[in-house]
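Can't paste images in this forum, so I'm doing it all in text. The chain is below; anyone willing to post the predicted structure tokens underneath?
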Amino acid sequence: MKDTASIEDILSTHLVEKLDDPRSNRNQRHSFVTLVSTSFLCVLSGIDSFSGMQDFVECHFDELIEYFDFPGNIPSHDTYRRLWGAIDPQQFLWVFQDFIEILKQSIVGIVNIDGKTIRNSGKLKPLHIVSAWCKENQLVLAQEKVDQKSNEITAIPKLLKLLDLRGCTVTIDAIGAQRDICEQITQQGGEYVIALKGNQGTLHEDIQEFFGDTMLLEACLMDEDNDKQSGRVEQRVAYSTTQIDWLQETHKWPGLKSIGMVRKSTIRKGKEVNEARFYISSLEADAAKLNKITRSHWSIENQLHWRLDVIFNEDKACIRNENAAENLNIMRKWALSILQRAKDKPHRSLKSVMRKNCMSLKHLINSVKTVFHA
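Text version of the structure:
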């Protein structure tokens, strides 16, 4: 037995021991530790299906058998499918959040909240999950599944309850423009910057009309940010003001201290696209901060949702069992946090780390040990 056999102990401590084995005691051919641990190693290697898990174990069997017990030979794809369809996603989420508590030190910054539909999941309706993402830590802090008969408005308050918002600024798109949600954020010690669209009809119209007045706009704080990359030129001009007494007389929005507008102009391949977005905030007026915060909100799309789709192939995984789809979503986010910290070079892509994990079990085990031991 090699010294690196401690990988089993590491995964058992942080991953397996806190989970209940949902299987019957009868006819168990493989240990719970082996199945859960190898599943996790597979996801870290870019495996996106249960049949892929079987293939991965088969290809690395001579090495894996030095670390895990396989009394029943190689686990089949059906074995993995039944297991993850039976494990309680809520319990698995609690285990994941315990791990996140170990990784994060203190979350003082911007927390982005947004939902993602896992296409080709579920039997009747695709699974939709709302996540809380911290760009500074590159971590999913918590998540909440949206009930099939509801929407994000009911899931966001449940998600917020899971977070310590003291010292944080929460960003949400227009669906979060609800009085109860804003009040909850401030009661939990956080601040908010929330986008507006037509779902808050008169509020959106009143703020849009305010920033449409040239004289009032000139009295606002202003910040300009220019960016050029990948053949695209982007200019963002933010305006912010605390002149909201007139607005609060009508709307009485909880915790509201400022309103803002960000005008974005993007030139790509000679074509120019202009748009204006409007925001409400519990922060004091600060155009530079508004520019930074609203831009950072897209981190949850670019650094979380995009990676789940493109790097982990989540939308094409076609896992119909709802429990299994949710459990694998949690595991991918867990893997994302580990891969981000296992990179030996800052600019190395996550895809590159995953390829190396898939080709070399030694590299894969070192990736896991580097993060868990740290």
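The chain has a mean pLDDT of 91. The beta strands are 110-118, 127-134, 139-145, 169-172, 191-196, 221-229, 232-241, 258-268, 271-281.
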